[in-house]
User: Which sequence fits this backbone?
């Protein structure tokens, strides 16, 4: 299995290099910029030193010999490389991504069938609406507010139909129910009132 360890990377403020000038290179450069990376786009042939100080690179040149040169430097410089349509010269695969606020759902086939990953992402998009991002914000706010010892109650708290409340425009009620469920052991009356 290729690329068997899924991970999300922080690229904000890091130098990332994109080789190529076509639509795929433009798309990858835009995604990196959106993530806060310091992006250098190289639309000319690769030269040694292009990856100096880089954290991550994308080769979207459409030229196998060019990609091989970029890969050789990436290996020497220990720069993570994604070579579009060339899995043998990749250190990572770029997944199909669905975003709902800070919720990120990534679908990867390990570079084997990117079209299928995109199709599955589109199917998930129909099931995972904006309310999931809103619920994430509610959960995150309570996670910051409440002491860590209440972590054991998260599963029970998330078993309630919080998404249904958010979908119905009742985010405040969802917040109250979530908070009450987390505190249920100590605040039984508040919890019973919230779930009623």
Assistant:
């Amino acid at each position: 299995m290729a690329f068997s360890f899924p991970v999300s990377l922080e690229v904000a403020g890091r130098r990332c290099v994109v080789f190529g000038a076509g639509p795929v290179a433009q798309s990858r450069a835009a995604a990196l910029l959106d993530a806060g990376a310091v992006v250098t786009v190289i639309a000319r042939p690769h030269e040694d030193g292009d990856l100096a100080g880089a954290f991550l690179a994308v080769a979207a040149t459409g030229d196998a010999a060019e990609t091989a040169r970029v890969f050789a430097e990436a290996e020497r410089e220990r720069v993570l490389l994604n070579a579009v349509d060339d899995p043998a010269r990749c250190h990572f695969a770029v997944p199909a991504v669905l975003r709902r606020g800070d919720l990120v759902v990534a679908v990867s086939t390990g570079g084997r069938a990117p079209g299928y990953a995109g199709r599955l992402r589109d199917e998930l998009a129909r099931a995972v609406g904006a309310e999931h991002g809103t619920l994430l914000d509610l959960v995150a706010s309570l996670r910051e507010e409440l002491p860590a010892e209440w972590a054991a109650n998260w599963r029970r708290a998330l078993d309630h139909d919080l998404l249904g409340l958010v979908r119905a425009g009742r985010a405040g009620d969802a917040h109250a129910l979530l908070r009450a469920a987390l505190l249920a052991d100590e605040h039984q009356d508040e919890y019973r009132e919230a779930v009623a």
Notes: The chain has three domains: 10-94, 95-128, 130-195.
